[in-house]
Amino acid sequence: MTRSELRDEVRNNLKRSSDALSDTRINRWLNWAQTFIASLHTYREMKTKTTLYTPSDGTSNTVSFPSNLKDLYSITLQDGASSVKLKYIYPRQFDLLYPRPATSGTGRPTMYVDYGESFELYKIPDKQYTLIVRYSKYPSDMSSDTDEPTLKRKDALIVAVATVFGFWSLKEVEDAAYWGKEIVPTLFKASVEADKTDEDWTPIARPFRLKGVSLEGEWWKNPFIGLGR
């Protein structure tokens, strides 16, 4: 479904005309809904990879993550026959072992530290290297009426969550509770059970759990809190 079709469904659920409720507000709820759902579970269509490059000046070891990063799976350094998967090291352990990385000189990196919006390499790269990053990404916002959600085959779930946002914003608590308690959990459970699992998955960094995902508490009273995994 396109954004305009999704919006029509939400508007019908809320029983509000365009004079009483603007398209802009419903569009915003639809994007919030997609992000909300993606925060609960990492679906197969959220998994991707990208190419990054290390600094080449011999003094910097910091590389920025993709702006839409959710979970990081692995980073491989491409160097011909010497290509290698970088080893993840926890920040405190890294600082204990290498409190001043510059004293070790430069070379081909073999490990990285995930911290904040970027990751640090060790050793400091002696030249520019290509990095292949496997990660999961948050969905892109729908910005036009012809856009379709990044999350595939989850139109009913997106509409249901956006409907909860709408009723919550309109202070219609009973309707928000009905959709939040009776409709959304069923659709969400079905979407998770239909998703492909990773049998060979090993936590690397920013770990998340695929099993036992649920919506706990009366989250529909305030959709920004009360998520349970």
Polypeptide structure, described:
This protein is α+β, with helices and mostly antiparallel strands and 229 residues long. The protein has two domains: 3-43 and 151-221, no CATH class; 47-136, no CATH class. 32% of the residues lie in helices and 20% in strands. It contains five helices and ten strands; from the N terminus they run H-H-E-E-E-E-E-H-E-E-E-E-E-H-H. It has helices at 3-14, 23-40, 91-97, 155-169, 173-193; strands at 47-53, 62-64, 69-78, 84-85, 87-88, 106-107, 111-115, 118-122, 124-125, 130-137. The strands form three sheets. The chain has a four-stranded antiparallel beta sheet, with no helix packed on it. Strands 2-8-7-5 form a four-stranded mixed beta sheet, with no helix packed on it. It has a two-stranded parallel sheet with strand order 6-9. Helix 1 packs across helix 4, helix 2 (23-40) crosses helix 4 (155-169) and helix 4 runs antiparallel to helix 5. The longest helix has 21 residues, at 173-193. The model is unreliable at 204-211 and 225-229 (pLDDT under 50).
